[in-house]
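thought: fold this chain, then report.
action: predict
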Amino acid sequence: MGMKSSKYGGLERFMCSLAKQLKTEQKKLIIIYESAPSCDIYIEDLYSHGAEVIVMPSRRLSIIKYILMFSFLLFKEKPCIVHCHFFPASYVAILLSYCFRVDKRFQTIHSMITSRDNKPVYRITELKRKTIYLKKLMYRTSVELFSVSDEIKSQFGTIFGDTKKIKTIYLGVEQNKFEKFKSRNKYNLPSDVVIISCVAFHDAVKGIDILLEAVSILIKEYKHENILICQIGSGDSTKTEQLKGLAMELSISKYINWMGIQNNVPELLAATDIYCQPSRSEGIPLSIMEAAMASLPTVATNVGGIPEAVNDNLTGYLVPSENAVLMAKKLDFLIQNEAVRHQMGQQAEKHSLNNFMLEKQTKRLLEHYK
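observation:
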């Protein structure tokens, strides 16, 4: 995986679905994480589906030690498939799998290539030589690559001029079966306010600061008092404190419920009325798919693969990145128009059911495995 697992989120549910379907075909799945997943229920579910979890911290080990550990694993298990996800571990894993002559070597590209200021890059001259070399090596040593959105595939083709090996396979989410009233009661959320949810870790790329600015406009210019923002997610403590400091500076702290990391995001989303994704860059957010399954309209930035998850003016609204004013305007319209929220939410759920069902998308991946 090349990542930590700090929650039982959308990607973790996708891995459980994959393990479950592989088990029915008598295949063993080994998942390698940077550290042990923090959610015990997630680990229990993986093991119940016959999967195994191995900790191999590529970011904390020396490159030589990581190469030796992964090489030993390849020698011991002799896998027929190696599927890599996040960098830098995936660069090493895909190359070693090539050297060990693993027949099927796959790479999923989850994110857009961005600059330091989180802007998407579309010219090869904007990339460092090291990045160019590693991306080309990844492409050459993979049998097939999967992009989680068409926009990622398009960006790769624009930069490197070749997408023959790349297929778009959306990740998937489960259908939401939770009820709003019960969910609000369970989490002590007020019943007489419009709740806007946002699922994002605390990093500049997620644009939570833009959402806070939009909330300030909603309160001070549009005079909305009966609103509550449920921000689900966490991150580096310094960045979290910066965001909370910005909320205090804008005098909107009482309207923000900082909920931290949650393992029950679908149930929390069901308790809310509107979803907002203010990102500066995205591959394609699973949280938007989950919000749609909860029949929520979405106000999101028009970046990366988000337009593939949000049909503008049908399932929600797309606004330019960094534009807190327009984001506030679209949120204001949905706050004031319950009928529109309901209509857009129904269309969003239909779109998600047709394109992002978890079991269907897992089966699509298995077709490539076969």
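thought: worth noting. The first helix runs from residue 10 to 24.
final: tokens above.
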